[in-house]
Amino acid sequence: MGYLLNPGAGLHLAQLSHSAKIAKAPSDISQTILNFFPANIFDALAKGNVIQVIIFAILFGIVLNQANRHGAFNSILTGVQQVNQLTVKLVMLVMKAAPLGIAALMAWVTATSGLKIILPLLKFLMAFGLGSLVFLMGLFAFISWYAKVPLRGLIKGFTRIILIAFTTTSSAIALPVELDDAQARLGVSQSISQLVLPLGMALNSNGLAMYLALACFTLTQLYGMSLTLLALVKIVVLAVIACLGTVVVPGGGLVALTIVVPTLGLPTESIAILAGIDWFSGMFRTVLNVVGDTTTAIAIAADENELNRAVYVQEHPATKES
Fold it and tell me: What stretches pass through the bilayer (predicted)?
């Protein structure tokens, strides 16, 4: 969709171009893969090489999990958990002050670039909306075939979930509705839904991954930069990895952007350009996230013979009152 609509084309933010320099992509795929892994984790931390830090964190977590089967490394695990809790509190503290900074940066961008900045933002939302629609159509068609359920009944069963996700922009708020409708309207057993949906809320972020990739594509266009195929692959991979465990509240996309954008050589203030429409893009992100979680639960329930297909041909029960 980014290539089709070119949301960032036609406007060059020359006033920031001196601080924006795209990271040079390696010439072959093998070197790209090798660059994902740090030779020295402290060097990666000092240089802000986020993708290497994330890869190290994943590998370190796997090793710690394997080594701590008998509780020999509980102190290290506790320390990591405490650092994580403090980091989340720090992020939430910064997010409370973020609206002031975003307003100041947006005022500066609008003053220097004029109202012309509005058009790329509208095109960005259009590209994201169309991309979300294509993704949902493909996902529903695949799950209908995979789980052997009627497509019409599948889409009808998702109506309330999509409505709640679209209006609240929060996967956490939509979770109770997901749990209820997954069982009552989509036929997923309670044991499957209660395991898959909370786990998916933290780990499965289809919408955020799409948003990050399209946002990076748009920002590089706004700064007059060109991306090679390998650079695009790196952006997509980093976008997927950055979504693991991302904050599941409104505004979490901005946190993920601060991880991905600096790796492109773009200034962090460029995030403010998309921050002004974060609420609207959050609508699409949340829908894709929760639908991805619920369709995963349907697929697993079908594999485990715990899917009640009769609900797809019956009238759905009225919404339960609190």
Answer: 44-65, 86-109, 121-146, 158-175, 195-217, 229-249, 255-277
